[in-house]
Amino acid sequence: MIREYILNLGFKMSKPITDKCNVYLQGSIGPMISDKVTYRLSKGFSFSDVLAIGITFKANKVSFDLKPSFRHTSNASIQKINFGYNIINVEFGVYFPL
């Protein structure tokens, strides 16, 4: 198991499509610390970049969110091992008021 600690700062731009649906673009970048050496990346300090596009749909008081994203991790050649790696994620969320 590899533990990663990441603090990303970013932006989110949203565009309504209908009263109940909108699409958005989200991006972030920030420092990361990992606790293990891998074939692709040294242990310690790296950077994590994320780019995502999503869609939100509202039904009554419940919102559904679908967001595929792309994440690139690299240490910018500040350490010996820096092949970096790329990850493709798909997130699905359900939001409702308590």
Please tell me about this protein's structure:
- Strands 1, 2, 3, 4, 5 and 6 form a 6-stranded antiparallel sheet that branches.
- The chain is 0% helix and 66% strand.
- The protein has one domain.
- Strand 4 and strand 5 form a beta hairpin.
- With 98 residues, it is mainly beta.
List the helices and strands and how they pair.
Layout: E1 4-6, E2 9-16, E3 21-34, E4 44-59, E5 62-74, E6 85-95
Antiparallel strand pairs: 1-3, 2-3, 3-4, 4-5, 5-6
Give the key terms.
0% helix, 6-stranded antiparallel β-sheet, 98 residues
Short summary of the structure?
The chain is mainly β.
Q: Outline, from the CA principal axes?
A: elongated
Give the C-alpha Rg.
17 Å
Largest sheet data: 6 strands, antiparallel
Helix content: under 10%
Estimate what percentage of residues fall within beta strands.
over 45%
Low-confidence stretches: none
How many discrete domains? Answer: 1
Termini separation comes to: 35 Å
Per DSSP E runs of 2 or more residues, the count of β-strands stands at 6
Overall average residue pLDDT: 92
Note the total helix count: 0
Order of helices and strands: EEEEEE
